[in-house]
Amino acid sequence: MEKQALLDGFKKVFGRSGQDVFFSPGRINLIGEHTDYNNGLSMPCAISLGTYGVFAPRNDDQVELYSQNIKGNIVSFPVTDETPIARPEEQWANYFKGMLTYLRQSGYEINNGFSLYVYGNLPYGAGLSSSASIEMLMGEILKDEYNIPVSNIQLARLGQRTENEFLGLKSGIMDQFAVRMGKKNNAVLLNSATLSYQYKPMDNLDYILIIMSTNKKHSLANSAYNDRVKQCHDALQLLQQKLEISSLSDLDFKMLEEYSYLINNPVLIQRVRHVVTENARTQEATHAIQTGDMEYLGRLINASHVSLAYDYEVSSKELDTLVNTAWQQPGVAGARMIGGGFAGSAIALVKRSQVDNLKAKVSAVYRQKIGYDASFYDVEIVDGPRKID
């Protein structure tokens, strides 16, 4: 979105001029799904869709937030207020408020109020991590405007804390880390146990990533996401009767085969099997990227979807329709659901020359089987949050 249009929006809402404009990307995850809260591997990328914010300081202690997407009232509260916002129509503001609260609790001085105008072009509920985009937008704004000496990794941790404690979603750190540490034309290989990471170049000119949105809304906090987290925790406790492991990601497939009798529950064994095999696939994907073998990377992406659908059971008719149809199209190396699941989006790794065909064929099948249209987004892999000059 043009900077001037954002500044005009701020002035229309608040009746004065905005001072600075910021952007925070969304994210997709190439491979490594539902592994981060199991201290595993993932390979996300920051994308060119995201959240914009226009900031201006105030002379008092009031914080004013306005979302152009929601088009509701201005949400206002004292900068010292640490209680979650109660009204359902204002729940979006909790992502901003949580980051503000936890930065202040960390000892950083943020005592003056401000006005913030927000606009996002991430499709709502598409599983592209609009929440992490918002959290890292707030982190970048507060770091810049209040001269806070906070590290990128600490900001990612505070974003995760906002999800876990302020919003009640027991998610891992991958979303916030991917947004905060995003690098143009690179995926980030993240080890959630150690927060060690490596950049993996994704500038193969023959293939691009296409986002395919189901246009079916989802809310992870109200889905079975937290149930999956609990199932993994329960399985880990059973395995720890005999094994000295700290997470499911300490297992390899041989160990799972040998000690699955400790779990002795078909559903829990499925969940663990997904985590173990997904970590292995993510490791293999790094080799595929390094050697430029997009066909092998695509097969790993396909296998990830199968595991998510059958072992982790987080796919849906809508997601399966997108993915299964994409698999049948020429030039598609791989496709899978991304995000928490149950709705949201899928990605396809496709040759540039076949993008239009992919969209046309998948769109037609989806409309016939589901009854409404899917949406498609071409995205670039971009850097993390920044101030727009």
UniProtKB/TrEMBL annotation:
Uppermost EC category: transferase
Protein name as catalogued: Galactokinase
Localization per record: Cytoplasm
Alphabetical UniProt keywords: ATP-binding, Carbohydrate metabolism, Cytoplasm, Galactose metabolism, Kinase, Magnesium, Metal-binding, Nucleotide-binding, Transferase
Gene Ontology terms for molecular function: galactokinase activity
Record: active site: 175
Binding site for ATP: 67, 125-131
EC number: 2.7.1.6
Residues that bind substrate: 33-36, 225
Lineage: superkingdom: Bacteria
HAMAP family: Galactokinase
Xref: NCBIfam families: gal_kin (TIGR00131), PRK05322.1 (NF003705)
Pathway(s) of this molecule: Carbohydrate metabolism; galactose metabolism
Similarity comment: family membership: Belongs to the GHMP kinase family. GalK subfamily.
Primary location recorded for the protein, binned into one broad class: cytoplasm
